[in-house]
Amino acid sequence: MTPPRSTRSRSPDRRDFLRAAFAAGVLAVGSPGSAAAAPAVPGRRFLCGNVPATGNPYYPGLTETLPTTIPGIPRAIINLQKAWKPGTTLTTYLLNGTADPCLPFFYDRIARAAAIWERYANVKFEFKIGPPAPDDCPCDLLTVNCLPFATRDGAMGVDTFNSLVGTDARVDDLKSRIPTMNLIFDPRVLTGLSGPELTSYFDGAILHEMGHALGFDHEHQRRDRPFKWKKPAVYDFFWDRLGWGRQMVDDQLDKFVEGASVTVFDPKSVMMYPIPAGIAEYEDPAGGPFETAGNHTVSPMDMVTAVWAYPPCQEEFAPLTTPPVLGGVPVAGRLAGKNVAVFDFIPPRTATYEFEFAGPMPVLAGVSDVSQGTRLPRARLEDVYLCGAAEGGGPGRRVVVSADLCAGNPYRLEVWHAVPRQTPVVDAFTVAFRETTRRRPASGC
Ligand SMILES: [Zn+2]
User: Residue 176: pLDDT band by 50, 70, 90 thresholds?
Assistant: First the structure.
């Protein structure tokens, strides 16, 4: 299914973002790209008249403060240099107030998405309606714009979604009145879509941009991605669909982000763009066409990465000395809320393995390569490499982590108890370990 939010554009890089949005300085409104000026959709009506006639209601006083140089900070799929301190409360200003009748619905979806990230990352989004006051602390804050606006050079119209990456949002944006995130939804979807289609239109975009705000980068722009773009098909596609020029396509899809990835390539990541058929192919000539659907939820690998980058202040490890035995009796353990059980093991053969978890509580589980010698608690996230992850569980439900592992290499299985630690509960569980195939290639081993 073609995702309904296919016309989004995002500029996670601060420089690109500023260039695109604020090159002209002070904002104006009522632009050609605004909702009111967008072509009418037959059978639908505008639910919201969200373009004021005059003035700038969004973030008064916005002026450009584009820095002349951008520090050359290495980037990763989660950019650790731009991650906030674990435990940070991000005061999140919803700049547009409540004047527009669509905004309460938008804000509700934003709050829901924030709560999803909060389940995994030890951060808190504290929402405030309206712009920050000049004397508010210019520290750990986000400012979110949801309505179309324009610069003198161009519009930020509906279906524009972008965010600064992590702590980039902190850099004097309060003073400069720069929205750190734009989530400019098309209000027509409120009458044109319903049910899961409607919520996925919002949630996929919000989770993605909030991922940027936490320091996540684009999955499809990692250096070790297994596919390559087919040019000029990708240029043609994005020009036809979104009006993106070659530079925009290069910036948003092709250009590698720097730094080490902390997971295997994850096409299910919410940080991955949907890639329709015909514009990409596997690097391996035998691999054939590459495509991905739109992802509207955070993937288990996104979740583990969030836990790793933003660990709980009081993370308690429960190392289990008995490693799981291939095909043997499941290992049993007990685990308290929000704590993590840890198994270190070495697989006997290069193969795809499955770890099947059973217990009464929901969990998040991941298998990582720890050949770099990472100790607990983790001092260096860069030394860990996530090979597989899964989440779910609860009474009667099993959680299976699948991962391609190399013979003789050290790995770690971690299982996080997903119930808050405030709940005084310790649950029993088992983990079974089995080989599913020996046909996997030994590449990377
Ligand atoms: Zn993005």
Answer: low
